Amino acid sequence: MPFDRTLYRVGSYVRHQLTAWHTGGEGVHSPTLFYIVRMIMYDDNAYYVFPQIEQQRGKLLHSADIVHQTDYGTGARASEQEDGAVIARRVADIARSHLAPPATGQLLFRLANYLTALHTPLTIVELGTSLGITTAYLASPSPKNTVQTYEGAEEVIEEAMKTWRALKLTNIEPVVGNIDQTLATNCPKRVDLAYIDANHTYEATLRYFRQLLPAAGQQSIYVVDDIHHSPEMERAWHAIQAIPQVTSTIDCYHCGLVFFDKHYIRKHYRMRL
After folding, report:
1. Of the candidates 181, 192, 184, which has an alpha carbon nearest to the alpha carbon of residue 223?
2. Total number of domains in the chain
């Protein structure tokens, strides 16, 4: 990561720690949102699938396999290649630089589990499959749910599918290709839970969110990853907060949660988990 970007992220982290709350949900005015914060976001229980998924992460971190992927200009954490270039990379390197941390995956699992209890089946969309670890967290709460996951590199998806087979997950539908094109033609009419972790630029993040927006219901939750990755990702996050259909958001530093329930008091929260 370039030094200036590293310095920026250190500064953004310090700012977040100084301005965010760690109250267990106190100060969150909407009752349902208070429940989500208190019982889901601050839940530190280890669910049965967590060790199994993290075991697969460990295998990826030690894999000697090589995959080829096309850079579609993702603004990725480790790639400074020209758009459209085909890059040969070790699976272990991708796992180290691109997989979301366990805390993010486990938060996604708890959110999917919560929404599954409200109504089943869910339609879940993930933008940016990478090696499929977060996909596994999203797919694990119920085999009745469908996880539609988008990834640009076919060989990376093939590696992800090995993980899903090992975990016996059969409710995942991969969509391979440039997300700028595939999302426009494959986006479901209803999206209960979305995880946006693809092209880390202002234009793409906002475009993906707007493409998913018509599919959001009152109880839908959209999660935007890496909202403090760069100045333009922070700008995209603030633009999302200003969209009229968005009623509340929660900034957890590593990711941001977006809510659409009209019963929530319109407010944007910063929280330390």
Report:
1. 192
2. 1
Range of the domain at 177: 3-49+97-270
Contact 191, 225 (CB under 8 A): no
pLDDT band for position 80 (cuts 50, 70, 90): very low
Measured CA distances, 56 to 139, 141, 161 (Å): 15, 17, 11
SS3 of 254, please? coil
User: How would you label 35-70 residue by residue, b for 16+ Cβ within 10 Å and e otherwise?
Assistant: ebbeebbeeeeebebbeebbebbeebeebeeebebb
* C-alpha distance from residue 168 to each of 130, 188, 266 (Å): 18, 24, 40
Residue 257 included in any domain: yes
Q: Per the domain annotation, does 73 fall within a domain?
A: no
How far apart, in whole angstroms, are the C-alpha atoms of residue 114 and residue 129? 22
The model carries a pTM of: 0.91
The reported pLDDT for the residue numbered 14 is 79
Q: Say which residue the tokens 């089946």 belong to.
A: 121
CATH number at residue 176: 3.40.50.150
Q: What is the pLDDT of residue 75?
A: 47
- Residue 147 contacts residue 172 (beta carbons within 8 Å): yes
pLDDT digits (tens, 9 = 90+) for 43-55: 989 999 999 999 9
HSE of 74, CA atoms in CB hemisphere, 13 A: 24
207: buried, middle or exposed (CB in 10 Å: 19+, 13-18, 0-12)?
middle
H or E segment to which residue 185 belongs: helix 179-186
